[in-house]
Design brief:
162 residues
Amino acid sequence: MKKSCEQVKAAMVKEMEEAIERVLAWEEVHETFTVTELEDFILGIRGEWGIEVAELLVGQLESKQPAARLRCETCGEMLQYKGQTARQVESRVGGLRVERGRYWCKTCQEGLFPLDEEFGLSAYGSSPAVDRLAVWLGGQVSFGQVSAVLAEVGQIHVSASS
């Protein structure tokens, strides 16, 4: 069920307040720290908060999934709704868990995930932006290094074999 703007705002404020509490607690126990330690800590919090907000907004889209009956693009038969299926999606803000409706054509024996199409997700489970970065980087370094560079520089995790 789609949340109201006030409910979304309250959830985001709650997440931010928790992040602030973590920052204050970290600062209290670290009388001294290096810039690298500070960067690592702040980037971790930023990443976690970004994922929380992104998943919250994805949840809003999930609740708007097609209520109308869908037809198979191949044979025209009505598709059967088969429930929600989770998928891990790698994005520039981190790994997102996406719950999306799964539809099935008995005639063609094929499934459809309309939200995947709406998001523009690749078969590899990544956003188009992550795919573009991986392809571009693949032209700069060996393909085996792409996964390591994306993880180190962008905290983006892709399979080394994809």
